[in-house]
Amino acid sequence: MISLYKENSFDMENEYFIENLKKMKQTFDVNTTSRTMVSKFLENYSLEQLNKIPEGFSNNLIWNIAHIIVTQQLLVYKLSGLPMMVSDELVEKYRKGTQPEREVTQSEVDEIKRLLFKTIEKTKEDFENKVFENFQEYPTSTGFVLTSAEGAMVFNNFHEGVHIGIMMSIRKFL
Length: 174
Prior knowledge:
- By secondary structure, the protein is mainly alpha-helical.
- It has a two-stranded antiparallel sheet.
- A hairpin with a 5-residue loop joins β1 and β2.
- It is globular, with a radius of gyration of 19 Å.
- The relative contact order is 0.17.
């Protein structure tokens, strides 16, 4: 009887994991769509345009792009107590509350472009491998409280949508 209970417990755990993975697939599909939209800015705008801060704005296209990468890493990895894929220097330049201090170089744009999809691919792989075991609860500036890495990814999609909207506004002035 005890071994049967352990098998059933394992089956229930496995079913929960599979259901959660299905939900996360949708979250990652949305995030991939978001990142694809963002990648179009990198493909279609010059270095000068990526760096331009239009009148009335406090940042530019490239800051918004790097900011969404950094924010995803902070929300999902740092709050889970795991190493991030972005450098401390990148975090300091693009975290919440910062703004561009100087124009970025083409090599910096290339690094941001490389991280745009690589960070999401790694996050998806880490979810599949059950890497996210711990999470430090975090109240966002919107009032929503993040309690898990899964919730952080869902919130991240909302956050990226906000910044895509800002980027769409900025491009009208380039």
